[in-house]
Amino acid sequence: MKKLISHFRFRISQSFRLLNLNPRASVPALFVFILLIVMKLPKDYYYPAGFFLLTLLFHYERKDIPFLKKVFVKSWRWVIVGEAVCVYSILLWGNIHYTVEKTGLAGYILLLLLAVLAPGKRPWLTLKWDFIPDDLFEWKSFLRKNTWMFMIGYIIIISSAYQPLTLILAGAFVLDYLSHIYEPHESKEMLEMYFKKYSLKEKLRRNSLFLNALLLPVYILYLILNPAESFYLLYYFAFMNLYFLLIITRKYKNYSYKEKNSYYNMGVFIEYSICSLTIIPALLILNTQLKSAAQNIRTYVGD
């Protein structure tokens, strides 16, 4: 029992220490936590369903199973369940609008399944995503590595369409994850081969079409649920696409075959988010970055 208590104390202190040491993660984490506290859903049983999915995502993404097996030789599975129960409880009972009902309590029973569904070395849900064209190589690489996380995140994004506030907040949050799709640099040879076939504007157009195809269910569901507030959907479309274009043009403006990535950080996220939310500054920056990116690409590919 002392070992178990010490373990949970360590988990709590570790969480605060990681947030202090990693501002890039702490700001979005705090933002999401506040959102989960104040978020109001139409029905009480929506809360446990959503929070259970988040807890399942936390469970799947954990990488400390070998450590737990060594420390808690016979009881490591129940430690996993205990941690999942804590996460689920904090999310569920932390929301100021949730009231107790049977679906929330049933979630605790389902969490017991995690004792026999511990994440393994290989994810149980993987797809090759071969139907995605090769020119969308950033997306294909990301989805192959993060299939399970994408599936759960996609459900949450679609669910955010039920009202304007959740639509905008969830959209702003997901922009941080979109940024990491375009952070890695491809090789010089791949860059040359790609831009001899496509122009930068074509890349922007094709990637934007793919993004909006993914968001199409969100657009449709929002219009069905909130037909009188379609202005917010236009705003959502504008700032999501502007941020997306800023991230891609930034990548190629800063591209160097000597660097592995474009060093995306929280400063970039905050700057581009504010500019995209205010629209006009994003348009000015996009115009400048587009010229710089095109010029940088010509140094590798030529005219």
Could you characterize the architecture of this molecule?
- The chain has 303 residues and is an all-alpha fold.
- Helix content is 73%, strand content 0%.
- It has 14 helices and no strands.
- Helix 3 packs parallel to helix 6 and helix 11 packs antiparallel against helix 12.
- The chain is globular and about 70 Å long.
Low-confidence stretches: none
SSE arrangement, N to C: HHHHHHHHHHHHHH
Distance, first to last CA: 69 Å
Q: What structural category do the secondary elements indicate? A: mainly alpha
The dominant shape is globular
Q: How large is the count of helical segments?
A: 14
Radius of gyration: 22 Å
Question: Roughly what is the average pLDDT, rounded to an integer?
Answer: 83
Largest sheet: none
Instruction: Estimate what percentage of residues fall within beta strands.
Output: under 5%
Provide tags for this entry.
303 residues, mainly alpha, 73% helix
Question: Short summary of the structure?
Answer:
This protein has helices at residues 2-21, 23-38, 46-61, 65-71, 76-94, 102-111, 137-145, 147-159, 164-181, 188-197, 200-225, 230-253, 266-277, 280-301. It has 303 residues and is an all-alpha fold. The protein starts with a helix and ends with a helix.
How are the secondary structure elements laid out?
Elements: H1 2-21, H2 23-38, H3 46-61, H4 65-71, H5 76-94, H6 102-111, H7 137-145, H8 147-159, H9 164-181, H10 188-197, H11 200-225, H12 230-253, H13 266-277, H14 280-301
